[in-house]
Structure formats: structure tokens, C-alpha cells
Design goal:
Elements lengths: L1 H23 L3 H10 L1 H10 L2 H10 L6 E2 H5 L6 H16 L3 E4 L6 E4 L1 H13 L1 H8 L7 H6 L3 H20 L18 H7 L7 E6 L2 E6 L4 H7 L3 H15 L2 H14 L8 E2 L6 H13 L2 E6 L2 E6 L1 H4 L10 H9 L4 E3 L4 E4 L4 H8 L3 E6 L2 E5 L2 H9 L4 H10 L3 H4 L7 H16 L5 E4 L8 H11 L3 E5 L4 E5 L3 H17 L1
Main location: nucleus
Function: Component of the general transcription and DNA repair factor IIH (TFIIH) core complex which is involved in general and transcription-coupled nucleotide excision repair (NER) of damaged DNA.
Protein name: RNA polymerase II transcription factor B subunit 2
């Protein structure tokens, strides 16, 4: 059971970090507008904070004139580590504009953001479970609606398939979002989202195959490879951050507020769209359905959405008590075994995980639930040239090591990790550059020496061999050097 709890904790940490980083990137005016928009933003921030920051928030929420800085210091232990933890928590809350320091030094007072505190008190006093019920958004009482809601297993399979199709589209292994019936009515263009986020190159090529045209991504960028190695929650926030940036400024706050509200809604339960959500929020629902975060359906000309497990952890707060969370944590325990002969075995049926392994291994066999490959110099260096870092490769195979090999220390043979790093260093020993060879100089005279001198003066000389009277210059300087050689030759002929 311990590994499952550890995996759940890791998922929570990743989600918290991605969510807080997203908030810190918002402009102060956007944060203030977000905190004033609904109680969900205040609850989401509270849930994503560490224990010290939570204590500070809860104490200040009910104190209108704030607290003395010296009083805040007493809320932690007397040790140096406690003081540093308090300092980090206060700095993070200030960056999030949850708190503000009035004055300087020991006389400073720490005050909570008024809009944030008001909405947090509203949520705590009313109970966040009742916030949705009061708006009439929960459709659990309608028997016709309940019959349309898929069971947890079906919903999880749907979300996983949607997300994997999206990632396979990024890698170029699938064009799922162009298949008939695969699109959901909405405005989200997944490939445009990838390009805007810098995960794929901006150009696409139209290819003809079997008389039909299809679009193919020109290539995955270094950021795209790093994206594939992240956790699902981190990946979701990368795409959502870009999605919100692309939204109209007038609707961005509404979109963020709805996303945070979504994290408190129960996976597998239907919520009404028609007559409850604004037009902006309904657009967001349709777009999130593309990503597998929501499942939508219609009953009696009214539309409903059902959050999936992917949506429930956007702002962190996994407890590990939910059965689906435990299953997800168990799945995250690991599936990769690496042997000292560089052979890689991955016990997985996930097409995405197999495609990720293909980024830096040579694929030898692929069975329904097993991938067998080899770490080779060529496969690793191809990944490095594409922008993957050696430490990312090592970190990935360690983080996804099979539970049987995790009992050993190290879980991945040290020789394999060291060899991956050595292959990376091999690429740093020399740098390839296009050049032009100059040869057949006269054996007598100063012509060769004069050309070498001019090439050095212009910073174009790459290599020289005085014994055989040969030199190479940068290809970019070839036209200039041709003119120099011609001028020197005319000058020597005149003499």
C-alpha cells in the first residue's frame, strides 16, 4: 500500500506545483479579478497551499485589519527551519496576492486580500458541497439524466482514450482528431494549441495518401519532448495555460473560475449546462471534452457534462481515499525494467507510453501488453538531437521503474545511467559545421600563407595543414574568401 500512497502524493505535488505556477504567471489585475469572481478560486488556492500557508490564510481570513508580522512569526516553531518555512510561505502568498504587507520591518502588518477573504468565508460558512446545489447545477435527482451517465470504469476508459489520442497526435503516431466521429462540437483546435504552446513546429505539410489529404505535424520541439515526459496533471496545465492565453481577455477570468469550480465537482456525476452556465462556460465545456476532462450528453434538448478523473486533480488535493485515485496511483507505480545489457522491457498496453519509449530506445518487439526495446547510442543521441536531455531520460526510466525492480537500489543499473550521460557528452566533444576545403596551393611562394592570414583575420579559418598546404573555412565565409583569394592572386601575379 505504501507505493500507492507515494504515487498519489507525487500526483498531488505535481498538480499543486503546476497550478500555483500558473497562478503566479497571471498579472496582478487578473488575480484580483479571479479572487473576486467566485469562492472556487479561494478554495482552490487554499487546497494547493502547504500546511503553514493554509494556517496563515485561515487565521487572516477572519481578521479584517490583519495581523502583526511578529504575531505571524509565532504561528510556527522557534527553529531556524520553521522560520525559513514561514518565510517561504509568506513569500508565496504575497506572489499569489493572497496577502499584502502594510508597512515595513517589525511594525508591518499582514492583511488578506479582501475579495479572496470574502469568498473564502462564504465557502467555509456555506459548505462548498452546497455551492453547486444552490446554483441548480447538480442534475443528480433526474432519473433520465442518471441513466445517461456512464459508470466509473467506462468514464475512466473514455478519459484515458481521449488523452492518449491527444498525446499520440502530438507525437505524430495518430491523427485521431481528424477521424470521422472523433471530433466533439466545439472550437478547440488541438494541433493549433500544440503549436501555440511551442510543443510542435509552426508549419504543417499536407500529404496525399490513398487519394485523401491529411495534415502531419512538421516536428515535435524540445519543449514537446519534455512535455511528453511530464505527469498528466502537469501536461494538462501546460495546455490549459495556453488555452486561457488564447481566450479573449474578457472571458479568461470566467474560464479560469469555471476550471477551478470543476475541480470540486464529483467525477462521475452529471451537472447541467443549459440554463446554468454562461455562453463562455459552455464553450469551455465543449473544449474540455476534446481533452477528456469532461463527458457531455443531451437529454430532452438539455445538455449536461460529467467531470472525469482528469478534471478532479487540476488544483491538487488528491487524498488517495477514492477508489479511482488508488487505481491511478497503482498504475503510476511503474512498468519499466532496464537490464545491464541495455534491454528495456515495459509492461504496458498504453500506446502513449510505448511512443514515449520509442523516443529514446530502438523498438524491437511490440506486444499487446509488452514493449521490448534497446537503449542504443543511435537511439539516445537521436533523442538528444531532438531536444531531450540525458537527465530527462534517466529520470523517466527511474520514475517509471517496475515495482519489482524498485526494491533494488538502484532501480535502474548505474552502468546504464552513466552510459546515457556518456553518449550525451560524446555529442558535446565536437561540433559539426559546414565548411569549404581550399587546396592545390603552389608549393613555393607566400600565396598560401597570405590566404591563411586573411582567413584568420576574418574569423573564417577552421583548420589548416601547413605541410600539405590545405585549409578549411566556414561555408558562410566562402564567397568572401573567394574574392580575397582572387585579389591576392592578382596582386601576386602583378609582382
Amino acid at each position: 500500500m505504501a507505493p500507492a500512497r507515494d504515487a498519489a502524493t507525487a500526483s498531488t505535488s505535481a498538480a499543486d506545483g503546476a497550478f500555483v505556477a500558473f497562478l503566479c504567471a497571471l498579472a496582478p489585475r487578473e488575480l484580483d479579478a479571479l479572487y473576486a469572481s467566485s469562492p472556487w478560486s479561494a478554495l482552490a488556492v487554499l487546497r494547493a497551499c502547504d500546511s503553514i500557508a493554509k494556517q496563515i490564510i485561515l487565521r487572516l481570513a477572519y481578521v479584517d485589519d490583519g495581523a502583526d508580522a511578529r504575531e505571524c512569526a509565532k504561528w510556527c516553531g522557534d527553529g531556524a527551519s520553521d522560520a525559513r518555512a514561514l518565510e517561504r510561505a509568506m513569500a508565496r502568498l504575497a506572489r499569489l496576492r493572497v496577502t499584502t504587507a502594510l508597512g515595513e520591518g517589525e511594525d508591518a502588518r499582514v492583511v488578506a486580500n479582501e475579495a479572496f477573504a470574502n469568498n473564502l468565508r462564504r465557502a467555509l460558512e456555506r459548505g462548498f458541497v452546497n455551492l453547486d446545489d444552490g446554483d441548480g447545477a447538480d442534475a443528480r435527482e433526474d432519473a433520465g439524466v442518471a441513466a445517461k451517465v456512464p459508470d466509473r470504469a467506462t468514464l475512466n476508459a473514455y478519459a484515458k482514450a481521449k488523452w492518449e489520442d491527444l498525446l499520440l497526435t502530438l507525437t505524430g503516431a495518430s491523427n485521431a482528431f481528424s477521424r470521422p466521429g472523433a471530433k466533439v462540437k466545439g472550437r478547440l483546435d488541438a494541433q493549433a494549441l500544440f503549436r501555440a504552446a511551442g510543443l510542435t513546429t509552426a508549419t504543417t505539410a499536407a500529404l496525399k495518401k490513398g487519394g485523401q489529404k491529411r495534415l502531419k505535424n512538421a516536428g515535435v520541439t524540445a519543449e514537446g519532448f519534455a512535455f511528453l515526459l511530464q505527469t498528466a496533471q502537469e501536461q494538462i496545465w501546460v495546455l490549459l495555460t495556453q488555452y486561457i492565453r488564447d481566450s479573449q481577455k474578457t472571458s479568461a477570468t470566467s474560464a479560469i473560475s469555471f476550471l477551478l469550480r470543476l475541480t470540486f465537482q464529483e467525477p462521475g456525476r452529471a451537472y447541467a449546462m443549459t440554463g446554468v452556465l454562461s455562453d463562455t462556460e459552455q464553450d469551455v465545456v465543449l473544449d474540455l471534452t476534446h481533452l477528456g476532462l469532461l463527458y457531455t450528453f443531451e437529454v430532452k434538448k438539455k445538455f449536461y457534462y460529467v467531470p472525469t478523473l482528469l478534471a478532479s486533480g487540476l488544483s491538487g488535493g488528491f487524498t488517495g481515499d477514492d477508489g479511482d485515485t488508488k487505481a491511478a496511483a497503482a498504475a503510476a507505480e511503474g512498468h519499466i525494467i532496464v537490464e545491464t545489457n541495455y534491454r528495456v522491457y515495459a509492461y504496458t498496453s498504453s500506446a502513449v507510453e510505448m511512443e514515449i519509449l520509442r523516443l529514446f530506445t530502438r523498438a524491437d518487439y511490440r506486444l499487446p501488453n509488452l514493449y521490448v526495446g534497446m537503449l542504443t547510442r543511435e537511439s539516445v543521441q537521436n533523442a538528444l538531437r531532438a531536444g531531450v536531455d540525458a537527465e530527462q531520460i534517466v529520470g523517466y526510466i527511474r520514475a517509471h521503474a517496475h515495482k519489482q525492480v524498485r526494491r533494488k537500489k538502484p532501480s535502474v543499473p548505474s552502468t546504464v545511467c552513466d552510459q546515457i550521460r556518456l553518449w550525451a557528452r560524446d555529442m558535446e566533444r565536437m561540433e559539426a559545421e559546414e565548411c569549404v576545403l581550399y587546396c592545390d596551393f603552389p608549393q613555393a611562394g607566400t600565396f598560401y600563407g597570405a590566404v591563411v592570414s586573411e582567413a584568420e583575420k576574418r574569423g573564417a579559418l577552421l583548420w589548416r595543414d601547413d605541410a600539405s598546404r590545405r585549409l578549411t573555412v566556414r561555408a558562410s565565409a566562402h564567397d568572401e574568401m573567394k574574392a580575397v583569394v582572387g585579389a591576392l592572386k592578382q596582386k601576386l601575379d602583378a609582382v
